[in-house]
Design a protein that fits this description.
Blueprint (H helix, E strand, L loop, with lengths): L2 E9 L3 E9 L28 H13 L3 E6 L13 H6 L9 E5 L17 H15 L5 E7 L1 H15 L6 E7 L7 H9 L4 H6 L4 H12 L2 H4 L1 E7 L7 H4 L8 E4 L16 H10 L2
Amino acid sequence: MGTRNSGIMISGKGQVVADQLAVGPNAKATKFVADTARDPPYPQAGSSEAPIGALTTGLRDAEQIERRLLLFVHGLGGDARATWGKLPGLLVEGAAFQEPPTIGYYTFPTSLFRLPFMAKAPKIQELAAGLRSQIENRYADFNKVDLICHSLGGLIARRYLIEEVKASRSLRVKHLALLATPNNGAGLAILANLVSWRHNQISQLCRNADIIELLNEDWVRFELQKKVATKFIIGTQDRVVDRFSASAYSGNSDVETVVGRDHIDLVKPVNSDDDVLIILKRFMQL
């Protein structure tokens, strides 16, 4: 024998009416009355509207899609693309992504030498400001940015991040890879400075240059390595930037060493089994 339970149905202008729901083998379908002219609870036949729950779920899913940028920053005298060889393509090759990362390149005027009639090279602080402008405008739609930097490019990126923290701006940069970066200057820069005419970038790369000392002080003071995951990558055959300079400071636990690589080929892996590539993929979770 069936039982009867109390039920609720909506009628008229939001009026609540009690009804009886029959439960059992002889149960009849329950009526559901609503004021569809004023506030339809579901889409009408032929309507393209979706239920509110579906709409909010779709919006939430859209917000969760990660738009990721791998931004490469070259070094002194380098080319925005040629510097890296196959590295950008190898980083994303074979990985499974909801949305594949976008590859970007930050390029700036630079040269190994400067003669009196040549244009002046932008200073590190100017290049850091330019990097910020590109990230905030050209790459404004990306919610996650990874910076992969070679040599001078690493100092530019570090300066950019310090200025962001000083200004209390939120950071979209999640990973910073510094390959052969002269964090304490480069000995060869002193010699290059002697044969170049007022070369701003080479002057700033000399050991004990004011900008490098201030950069290192701010890096520690504002605890950047706690705010941005950072990896310092060193080549054992590098004769341009020594181990002490590339590792930034003694006791740095975020240092990786690649045996047999020099200043140039450190950033040019030849295949997917290359140590540099393995280090970067593991570090950036690619």
